[in-house]
Amino acid sequence: DSGVTQTPKHLITATGQRVTLRCSPRSGDLSVYWYQQSLDQGLQFLIQYYNGEERAKGNILERFSAQQFPDLHSELNLSSLELGDSALYFCASSASGGSSYNEQFFGPGTRLTVL
Amino acid sequence: EDQVTQSPEALRLQEGESSSLNCSYTVSGLRGLFWYRQDPGKGPEFLFTLYSAGEEKEKERLKATLTKKESFLHITAPKPEDSATYLCAVQAWNAGNMLTFGGGTRLMVKP
């Protein structure tokens, strides 16, 4: 158990809909990262937040957005869903988000199925 | 653009048969190289971080090494419970804290 929690575990929805994925980082970690894992693309970085502020962006679609709240939990919002958005979405956390070395610890993931 | 290539894609071993997994990388200034283990349907589990060429780290039957172009994950006398996908990722100095992952090596250890 990494200490990172994600809800829900599974999500099944229809094309065009909007969903919210939730992540709570390990106690004391200030950085939260979101990754997408699909069969054809592997594990891809989406976005990072550090202590409430966006720190880095990867290949995140404009239909996707995220935020980190004052209690450090984070939400990933996916809208206008397409079949290709079906994937495992992982949240990871680390102690820092700046210049020091850090390991990222991953949560159990949310499996999103878009029908 | 940072790139990570892992080989082989899949590896079948008999219990006790030692082998190595390869991770080749191209990165503009390596900040760290990470190894993770992932079981089906689960999140990646952190194994090692390597920071500079020549560094080695060990944990039970696993040993990770790093050169300027690649990293190896050596598995000594594997057991069936070592079956999993092993992922390699790099972190570059000019890319914040994001990890760039390779495609993984799916390891199957038969009893």
How many angstroms separate the termini of chain B?
41 Å
Largest sheet features of chain A: 7 strands, mixed
**Percentage of residues assigned to helices of chain A:** under 10%
Overall geometry of chain B comes to globular
How confident is the prediction overall: mean pLDDT of chain A? Answer: 93
Query: Can you count the helices of chain A?
Result: 0
Supply the number of helical segments of chain B. 0
Beta-strand percent range of chain A: over 45%
Low-confidence stretches of chain A: none
Assign the structural class of chain B, choosing from mainly alpha, mainly beta, alpha/beta, alpha+beta, or little secondary structure.
mainly beta
Most residues in contact: chain pair: A-B, 27 and 24 residues
Indicate the low-confidence ranges of chain B by residue numbers: none
Query: Could you say which structural class the secondary elements and strand pairing of chain A correspond to?
Result: mainly beta
**What is the H/E order of chain B?**
EEEEEEEEEEE
Quick one: biggest sheet of chain B? 6 strands, mixed
Oligomer: heterodimer
Provide tags for this entry.
heterodimer, A: 115 residues, mainly beta, four-stranded antiparallel sheet, 52% strand, B: 111 residues, six-stranded mixed sheet, 11 strands, globular
Structure description:
The complex is a heterodimer of chains A (115) and B (111). Helices cover 0% and strands 52% of the residues of chain A. In chain A, strand 5 and strand 6 form a beta hairpin. With 111 residues, chain B is mostly beta strands.
